[in-house]
Amino acid sequence: MIFTATTLFGLEKFVGEDIDTFGYRRIETIDGRVTFEAPPEAAAVCNIGFRCAERLYVNLGDFDAPDFNSLFEGVRALPWESFIGSEDEFPVSGHSVKSRLFSIPDCQKIVKKAVVTRLQEAHGVKVLPETGVRYRIEFFILNDRATLMIDTSGDGLHKRGYRPEANAAPIRETLAAAMVLLSRPREDVIFVDPMCGSGTVAIEAALIDCRIAPGLNRRFAAESFPAFPKRMWDDARAAARAAVRPPQRRIYGRDIDPEAVALSCANAKRAGVGHIDFAVSDIADFESPVSGARGTIVCNPPYGERMLDRRRAEELYSVMGRVFAQKVPGWQIYIISSDPDFERYYGARADKVRRMYNGMIKCGLYQYFRKKG
After folding, report:
1. Residues 201, 203, 206, 208, CA torsion sign
2. What is the per-residue pLDDT across 265-313, written as a single tens digit (0 to 9) for each?
3. DSSP helix, strand, coil percent of the chain (3-state; round to 5)
4. How far apart (Å, rounded) are the C-alpha atoms in residues 134 and 204?
5. Distance between CA atoms of 352 and 329, rounded to whole angstroms?
6. Which string of b and e fits 89-114 if b means at least 16 CB within 10 Å?
7. Which of 177, 216, 227, 252 has a CA positioned 20 to 30 A from the CA of residue 46?
8. Beta bridge partners of residue 216, listed in sequence order
9. Where are the beta strands (DSSP E) in the chain?
10. Contact at 8 Å (CB) between 216 and 240?
11. Are 159 and 50 in contact, with CB atoms under 8 Å apart?
């Protein structure tokens, strides 16, 4: 089978590495998408195991679609009946980029009509009640070439299930996982998020440390698809559980808000990583939780967009730069911010800046990892 994993811009590298780890063959990588070849059980393995992907689709086919007639005939030629039964539901959504067919509503109508025609012919029926299993069809048209897919995930893969509640400006779980991976976790280095909010960064760090698959405790749309039987999902979950290991490193979360700390503790418990050390602390009073330890800081401070105003966010950056330089000068530090002037307020030029997106917000991950002097 051919699958496509979608991701936030900038995280394609991590999705590709997961695909390699699972032993599947990458075919193509473009902005926000990685296409690969794998056996059917990849639907279970990847949905359960992906850390940085947003959704997983199974590809039905691709073809040139410079006009609506080509789109209709191309969609009609695909084997929809191999997945969708005569009573199943199949809503259509999609995107078009740099293509002559730019009207999404019109493309939706054409795709829907073509699928209906194919299913009526294949199942020998005139009426499709759409009361059965739900198959969400996705089209993606790029440079006049259409790809037709079926969503296997259901809810986005960033919804791990441990965060039913969050603070006012939570970071997406998939982005938090990528930040942790970029920080190069090591067992002899403690991990600290000094502004943990609802605990997402620290929890993702603990999931990675304990090798807990992020989708282990949730359900997926394709579990109701006959093409992906229950045995497949049971085997993937059993393998994921067998891979779990005890904590290897110490992880800490701090926040000035006692309610945020309580929420972090509750979220960590739901995620199965209740060993994280969360405590109330002001960033101005920050110091290493373990005297003399080597450490890594990864954090998502307020941007001045959804929490704090811009001026207060800039003041916070200044405090962070001063305190980290004084209290933990040899530590590696990774800070995500949407402020293009972050380095000026922080007081130090980053060793590297990686462009990322937190949802729709364009950000930079400012990385400080070289020893000074």
Report:
1. negative
2. 999 999 999 899 999 999 999 999 999 999 999 999 985 444 457 788 8
3. 35, 25, 40
4. 31
5. 17
6. ebebebebeebebeeeeebbebbeeb
7. 252
8. none
9. 2-7, 25-30, 33-37, 53-64, 92-97, 137-142, 145-151, 190-193, 251-255, 277-280, 295-299, 332-337, 352-358, 361-368
10. yes
11. no
pTM of the model: 0.93
* Ramachandran class of 111: left when φ > 0, alpha when ψ lies in -120 to 50, beta otherwise: alpha
344, 366 contact by CB (below 8 A): no
Beta bridge pairs of residue 252: 192, 277
Q: How far lies 202's CA from each of 229, 250, 295, 358, in Å?
A: 34, 10, 14, 17
Q: Give 45's strand partners.
A: none
Distance of alpha carbon 257 from alpha carbon 262, whole angstroms:
9
The CA dihedral of 293, 195, 335, 304, to the nearest 10 degrees, is -160
> Residue 255 corresponds to which tokens in the numbers above?
């926040």
- pLDDT tens digits along 54-102: 999 999 999 999 999 999 999 999 999 999 999 999 999 999 999 999 9
Q: How far is CA 214 from the centre of its chain?
A: 10
Mean pLDDT of the chain: 94
Nearest to 168 by CA among 286, 269, 270, 263: 263
Q: Which residues sit opposite 167 in a β-bridge?
A: none
DSSP category for residue 277:
E
Distance CA 353, CA 361 (A): 16
Residue type, 319: V
C-alpha–C-alpha distance, residues 358 and 351, integer Å: 21
d(CA 294, CA 125): 68
